[in-house]
Structure formats: structure tokens, C-alpha cells
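Notebook entry, structure prediction.
Reason for the run: the old model in the group folder had no record of what sequence produced it. Starting over properly, with the input documented here first.
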Amino acid sequence: MTFPGSARTETVLNTSVNVDIRTALPQRELVPMLDNAFAWLRWVDRTFDPFNEESQIARLNAGRTIEQVPELIEVLHRCDEMAEATDGWFDSRIGGTLDVSGYIKGWAVERLSRALASAGAVDHRITAGRDIRVRGSSLPGRPWRVGIRDPRTNAVRRMVFANDLAISTSGKTRVVDPRTGEAQHVLGWVTVIGPDLSTADAFATAMYAMGPIRARRFAMDLAAAEPYEVMIVTRGGRSVSTPGFALYGTPSQLAG
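New structure, fully documented this time:
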């Protein structure tokens, strides 16, 4: 099937990133739009990668002079806010070393999604590893259909349908308990869905670090107070979801 728009995939932010624009715009607009999209993601990578010794994060960790970058101030401020919102389970300063990896990919994709919508590409899907942002329609009248995959097997565990949603899954990659500094492997994965990908990304990272009992309690409290829903899966494959997660289960439910 031929789709309107255009798509591109590149490796950036240590993962494969796909930008799929379905708005029927002329190629003379779509090509520079995609060029700018990946230029932005590469800038984020250069600025925030803690393993690049010339990045602003690495320079901060080394006590070197940094540039006055407004986006850096914004990210550090939001990381501190997410640490407070999760009672310290999301922590960008474990062991005294600054690392915003649990936030920056979601933040970069969310910013890109807003920029694309403002530029007229109102129908798009951005996939960056297990972080996904959809807006508009995949085809006229059709919501986006997104499979939530088991990070260990890549098998689709659940489908969600949405016209405007952020989806972030934390699992498989190394997540550290900020209170002990030890890697967490108790849960299989945690998926958070909601209106903002950077926030969903941070919440998913925090709950994966919490372990099953504390994560489930936090998820229920979160869903009761904020527009975010959660699915938690144990290493044995058992899952529990907040009540609102089911609302994204079929395309017909979105029409109401």
C-alpha cells in the first residue's frame, strides 16, 4: 500500500529512529522537513551524550566550561522535577555523575513532534527505540495502530490505537536503583502512555527501578492524579494495567 507523505530512518541517540509523516505535503516541503528533524536529533545527541567528552553533559561532569544552552537548563530543571515527582526513583545524578539518558530521548522526540505539527505535518509517527509519539491519523479516518513489544523477545504484547499519544517502554536496558546503585532486573518491563513523551519516559524509568510492588502502587496513584496510564509486566510475563489503559485497546473506542 502506498502512503501519502514520506518517511526516513537513521541511527541517532544510540537507537534506530524512524520519522513517518503521513500528511499529504509536496516533497519539496517534506525533504527539508526530514533533514531538519534529524539535524535536531543529532544536535541533541552531541549536546547530551554523557559518553561524548565534548558534550555539554560530559563537560559538566568534568567541571569544564559549558555553553549557555537554554535547552540544557530546561532539561536539567525537568529532570529535577521528575526526581521530585517520583520521590527520587528517577534520578539523573546517580553517584554524583550527571546522566539524563532516562529523559532525553523522550524529550527530543516530543520536541520534534511538536515542531512537525507546527510546520504542517500534523499526521506523523516518530519511533525511537521503545519511545513512540503519534499525532493525527495514519490514514484519513484511521488512528495510529501501535504494538507494545516485549523488549526481550520483540513480540507484540498489546495493541493501542490513538490519534495523539506518547508511548514509552522501559526494560531490557540497564536501569539502576538510585538508592543502591544496583541494576534492577525484577520486572520485565513498564510501559507508560500519556500526553508527553519525556514525562512518560521518566515515569517508565522510575517505575522499572522501583520493582513490582512499589511500581504498582505508584502507577495506580499516578493514573488517578495525572493523564498517564501504565502497564507493568513481571519477568514471568504477568501483567497489570491501570484502568484507563484499556480505553486505548480498540479503534472503535476512540470514536466516542
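Summary: The first strand starts at residue 6 and ends at 12.
The old model has been moved to the deprecated folder.
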